[in-house]
UniProtKB/TrEMBL annotation:
Coiled-coil region: none
Domain ABM: 34-85
Classification via InterPro entries: ABM_dom (IPR007138), Dimeric_a/b-barrel (IPR011008), Jasmonate_Hydroxylase-like (IPR052936)
Tree of life domain: Bacteria
Protein known as: ABM domain-containing protein
Length: 109
């Protein structure tokens, strides 16, 4: 994804997922695409930005309207399946952080 998420005026929430991948795809790419598609259909989803370097370190930030929307996404059945596969197959390690966005600013040439 190369576009910046188009978020509303704050406040809103950001879920920051930083991960280090294991070697090989093992179905990761297909599931990652499916998760973005499915998340975008969830109530309260505002957008997503993601990047991964050649060494396997990645950061995905998803934006949500509320903590309740984040909780519902975390508990979605297919997302829980992806979370389990992440722990068993796709990630060496990861960190998850939830933050409230109080202020934002954008620049574009």
């Amino acid at each position: 994804m190369s576009d910046l998420a188009k978020t509303p005026q704050p406040p809103y929430y950001a879920v920051i997922f930083t991960s280090e991948r294991t070697a090989g795809d093992k179905g990761y790419g297909r599931m990652a695409d499916l998760m973005v598609e499915l998340a975008s259909q969830q109530p309260g989803f505002l957008g997503v930005e993601s990047a991964r370097d050649a060494g396997g370190l990645g950061i995905t930030v998803s934006y949500w309207s509320s903590l309740e929307a984040i909780r519902a996404w975390r508990e979605h059945a297919l997302h829980q399946t992806a979370q389990e596969k992440g722990r068993t197959d796709w990630y060496e390690r990861y960190a998850l952080r939830v933050s409230k966005v109080e202020r934002d600013a954008f620049f574009e040439m």
